[in-house]
Amino acid sequence: MSDTFQRKPQHWLNPLSVWDTDEGLTEVNSVTTPNPRDVWDANTAYKAKTHKVGRLKYHVVWPAHGDKLWSRFRWWPTRRNALDIHGLYNRKTLEAEKKINDRRPIYWAICLLLIALGPLFFPASMQNTLLSAGAIFSIFAAINVCWTLIVGTASIFSLATYAVVGVSAFITTWLSMQYGLPWYTMPLIGGVLGLVMGGLIAFPALRLDGFYYALLTLGLNELCRVFFTTSKAFGSASGGLYGADTYIPQDLDPVTQSLVGYYGAFALLIAALFLFRFINGKRLGRILRMAPEKREAFAQACGVDYRTARVTIFLITSAALGFIGGFYAAQYRGVAFSIFSFDTVLLGLAMLTIGGIGRAEGAILGTLVVTFLDRVLIEIGPLRYFIIGGLMLGVVLFLNNGYFGIRKQFTAWRNKKRGEWRSQRAEKGGEALPEEATEEDNKDALFFRRFDKMQRDHLKKMICPEIIEEHRRRPLGQHSEALERVLYYFRRSPMEDKYALHFIEATDRYKIIAFSGKRGVSPRVVEDREYESIDDAYHAIFMRRIHDLMES
Amino acid sequence: MDIAFILLNALVIACIYGLIAVAVSITWSSLGLINLGYGFVFSFAGYGAWLAATYITKMSIVVMAAGVLAGALCGVLICLIVFIPLHDKPNFTTRGMIGTLAISLVGSQALLMQFGPRAKALPEFFGNWSVNIGGTVLTADRIGIVLCSVAMLGFVVMWMKGSRRGLEIRAMMMNPHAASIVGIGIRKTGIYVMAITGAMAGLAAVLLSQTYYVAPFSGLTPLIKGVSIALCGGLGSVQGAMIAAIILGFTEAVTSDLLGGQYVLITQFLVIICILIVRPRGISGLLDKAREQ
Questions:
Q1: What is the mean pLDDT of residues B38-49?
Q2: Which pLDDT value is given to residue A2?
Q3: With B46 labelled, which of A303, A340, B106, B203 sits at a CA distance of 20 to 30 A?
Q4: Chain centre to alpha carbon of residue B82
């Protein structure tokens, strides 16, 4: 700001010289004083970049009539609404409208409908691949939704999910082969097996925390793999155990069989989603949202029994996983050893991470992406593992919580950037920042600081060698306009840290001191130097003040 | 049942898995990273040694050095890809673990594409002789494995205790935040740690190549055993890892002698679970609380 103003030299004539009271200063070289309005304009201008159209948030308000806001659909026999709706008046037309606060149920319905109607749109050439991939997707999505309950809601980092599914699938297949169990009992028996397995696995979870448990369950998974692949009863040579009863009628043609399998798996997915909704969205889930990891002690102090809640969720979910295992066996007439392999756990983790841990929609999206890459793009060979690994790595490196965390992360990033931009714009030349201003009770002080800053900007333009020379020649008396204005400002400064002269009688010299500004507190000595004449001392103070002004 | 034979077996197994367990343990305690990519480091180092044996020379020192160097290189690679970009981000522990898993997925597939699924054999490093002490036959291979891994572990422990870099790593183990305040660069130390632990995994790979051969997915079992031993010994404690390695090596030797090979993992896990239920932080858990980020 001070750079734009061009100082002009000015020849100043002392008006007092007419009456011979000028004490030796008849004329001096000085500078013109700038127009104070320039500083005012520069300081009050709006410096943020402005656009023609403002940044108003664009809200979609569905053009639904708002006549009967009280009349809503309720799920019989509860009083729950299907959608979270509130009424508002349109700002332009002043008509009553309905606004949907939470649109997620609509998206869920659309997506599930798409999956349900999917077989209609599959191209005929790929119908078989897509139907089997769809069935696999639904089953794995159901497993991952349950896994999300364990990892997200219960915060038990268990990697033994596929072990539970696999054990239950193997044992139900074996039972079905040995004792001829019909298919409808297999998921139920699987559920019981899952509950037993869950109980066994949950026992260490009570003592271990976090990653100790994750690594232990990884080992358990490997243990199951080794046990089942080496045991003769479970068909160690044939790569899996097949021959169980199935719910898919065998006398239908293959496409219809695939369709039945597809919709059976889809029904399983819906059931898993309901389980998620009824655990995560109800009492157990809410209790555990109160007790996130590393803050359990606080929740416990509030009377939340988080251990019981976690173990309960773990047991329920293990039973559900066992159920899924039995269902899997009933769908595919058996199960392969690959369900226990490290790669399955790895791909499962990839599914959870890509979508975002702790959300049902994340688990399903991740499953969709990974299953599509893994099962549909088979012809591109091992390259698909590179894509999956790359996706996993990208998500882990750049996203805090998967795809469904992007929105929150983006908002946080934008707020951070906004703060940075604002602090770049703000000039901190003594003005109070907005954060400080809200803390200050005396708003007069804020305005004074603002005015003071402008005045200092104004005065800084006048400081030049000419007026310093003028002051050196005669510190007191009439001065040119530029120097006079600077001196008025200096004289008006508050008593706190105001410079003054101290006369030392013993040596007949002067010393610069600064007042404390507080009654009863003696001034401090600013420097040790002593001045012989009072004019030299005045000028020394003047130079100090100019220095302080230019520093500020 | 021959007590000396079992003890010897236990010692050999303990030596090899102990290397990986100590590597996992040091990485966890100093960087807070659960590196599940050691399986990939293991295979990578094996292939490095195999390449050296095929194209350079079959001299055992050179081949072993190539394996160790390849392991260190792979460790540094994991550090550069996962640890350095992620170490100051939220949810680092989970994300770091998944990142190392992703590297292991991509890396193993790359090895599979490059070298094919067939396992490769490395030359015998220690010759074909054997010594008979008090009725127990000690083959060259076993003596070599024990000596090499003890030498490597001894070197690492000496280096951690005596050198400036070791001091930095130990400072990171105690309090990473304070270490960074007093001028110990987290990233720089991360590279040292991953290089030395990668070298340990590489040595384990070379030593184990007589049992497991070199294949794209051969690192999985050693990784899982190493992780379980590290867990049982207490993540972050070198002594604990060694004690646990001896206990589990003994379990493995006894089980395979008495019950048969397929029950090894079951008895091992029962032992681990028992130990962890009594001491949830492992045998000598260095850190009272799990390392917090």
A1: 89
A2: 45
A3: A340
A4: 19
Q: Closest partner residue to A207 among B93, B104, B277, by Cβ?
A: B277
Q: How would residue B290 be classed by pLDDT, with cut points 50, 70 and 90?
A: very low
How high is the ipTM of this complex?
Answer: 0.84
Q: Does residue A167 belong to the interface with chain B, where contact is any CB pair within 8 Å?
A: no
User: How far apart are the CA of A308 and the nearest CA of chain B, in angstroms?
Assistant: 18
Q: Which two tokens stand for residue A118?
A: 């999917």
Distance CA A122, CA A117 (A): 10
Please tell me the distance from the alpha carbon of residue A142 to that of residue A147, in angstroms, as a whole number. Answer: 9
Percentages (nearest 5) of helix, strand, coil residues in chain B: 75, 5, 20
Q: Residue A86 carries which side chain, given as an amino acid letter?
A: H
Domain segments of chain B as ranges: 3-278
Q: Which candidate from B101, B228, B273 shows the least CB-CB separation from A346?
A: B101
Contacts of A234 in chain B (CB under 8 A): none
Residue whose pair of structure tokens reads 């773990």 in the numeric block: A314
Q: According to the model, what pLDDT value does residue A521 have?
A: 92
Q: Does B103 sit within 8 Å of A211, measured CB to CB?
A: no
The residue to which tokens 């790595």 are assigned: A393
Q: How far apart are CA A234 and CA A241, in angstroms?
A: 6
Q: Is A400 on the interface with B (CB under 8 A)?
A: yes
Backbone torsion region of residue A92, taken as left when φ is above 0, otherwise alpha when ψ lies between -120 and 50, otherwise beta: alpha
Chain B contact probe: residue of A212, A229, A341 with most B CBs at under 10 A: A212
Size of interface A-B (CB pairs under 8 A): 121
Average pLDDT over residues B89-112: 87
Average pLDDT over residues B85-111: 87
What is the average per-residue pLDDT within A67-75? 80
CATH code for the part of the protein at B3-278: 1.10.3470
Mean pLDDT across A330-334: 87
From the list B102, B266, B272, the residue facing A393 with the nearest CB is B102
Token pair for B272: 């681990």
Least confidently predicted of A16-20, A104-108, A127-131, A207-211: A207-211
Between A234 and B269, the higher pLDDT residue = B269
Which residues in chain A are contacts of B230 at CB distance < 8 A?
215
Given a cut of 80, whether residue A32 has pLDDT beyond it is yes
Contacts of A401 in chain B (CB under 8 A): 91
